[in-house]
Specification:
Blueprint lengths: L1 H23 L5 H4 L1 H26 L5 H18 L1 H6 L3 H22 L1
Length: 116
Amino acid sequence: MTFSAIFSMAVGVGMIAQWIRSYLSREIPELKTEPIRILFHIAAELATAAALIAGGAGLLANWDWGTQIYLVAIGMLLYTAIASPGYFAQRRQWVWVGIFAVLIALALVSLVCVLR
């Protein structure tokens, strides 16, 4: 479960870092064109990140609730990792689509490790 815990926390921190970087670099044009939609999207991703960090910490510390939070968080991650690549595919940014494919594969490996 160590892999799953570290993976979960690393992805959660990475998601937060990516949104901060994108915001500071002014790489979120939707803040001007469709601000309500993107703010809801960012909120959902930040909630996913927080759940991943909490679930990973819970797994690592062997807290009773760690597995349950992890399972919810990994489900949230799988949803966003399946839905989000469409944005990048529409823009023909195939590297990002590939990154999401790898993320999905690693999330599934992580999930199997916890369920065994």
